[in-house]
Amino acid sequence: MIEAAIVTAIRARLTSELAAPRERLRPLTVGGQAVGWLDRQRAQRLREFADVFEVRKDEIALAPQQDDVAARTAALDRVARTLAAEGALTAWRDERYAVAPAFGAEPWFLLERAAARYFGIHTYAAHVNGLVEGGATRMWVARRSPQKAIDPGLLDNLVGGGIAAGQSVAQTVVKEAFEEAGIDASLAACAKPAGTVDICRTQPDGLQRETIFVHDLWLPADFTPVCIDGEVVQHRLVELPEAARLIGNAEGDDVATADSSLVILDCLLRHGAIPADVPDRAALDALRHPSCAPRA
Fold first, then answer.
1. Is the pLDDT of residue 143 over 90?
2. Total domains in the fold of the chain
3. In 3D, which of 263, 275, 286 has the Cα closest to residue 2?
4. Does 215 fall in a domain?
5. Mean pLDDT score of the chain, rounded to an integer?
6. Is residue 292 domain-resident?
7. pLDDT tens per residue across span 33-81
8. What does each C-alpha distance from 143 to 12, 46, 76, 148, 260 come to in angstroms?
9. Which of 65, 94, 121 delimits the end of a domain?
10. Which residues form the domain of 117?
11. H-type helices in 107-236, by residue range?
12. Are 30 and 11 part of one and the same domain?
């Protein structure tokens, strides 16, 4: 079992890193529906794109001429490229997210991934806990490349990635499993959906609002991950108490991303690695699905 002190460290770190936004944010709206959230400084910047946005006191509305998916997508792409040239975005990914009323619904528009947090849109990702049986359950953790645009050099789940426009959860799992760990499609398809976790927090590049589709994949004892796309520089196989210690770390060389820490915490809770009677249990449960309505 995982020691109470480690559980307390996990709660302290994740409560801090996953805290809901404190400042007032202005909604970006399409047809009166909020599709994103921006702080005051970013909202003011959008005033300069008068043909794309109508920046009002309580909202940022897309201009009337942006009246269909193609027009909105083209307009937002032009804005995103301008912001990227100014250094206001993370590295350009040349991959788009679908901005829609719900996951899988017809989109309002498509948006370059690097601009997702700037506009505070709701994004979706798929992560996989790579687990190994045989005595004590073990888990594979990965170290992100120091060249990654977000969270360079930090520890991560074995597999994880954003769900691009036109891609399903299952397709994303298969794609990312091969690219990040060399897992072939037939094995990746065995990953078992285990629900979702949610994140809503302010970051330097904007607002991260993300739902992560969590999976468990039981791997053969003789399997060794191999990164294909260069985004991972190391893999490590650890027992669950060590995984818990890692996600409780707030400093040093072995710090995990907040996203992966939440996914690992969810796994530890579901598999009974954290005792049901520890004082912090209810608080840890609450971290998985925070009540996060940005303040307008």
1. yes
2. 2
3. 275
4. yes
5. 94
6. no
7. 999 999 999 999 999 999 999 999 899 999 999 989 999 999 999 999 9
8. 23, 36, 33, 11, 11
9. 121
10. 26-121
11. 116-119, 169-181, 185-188
12. no
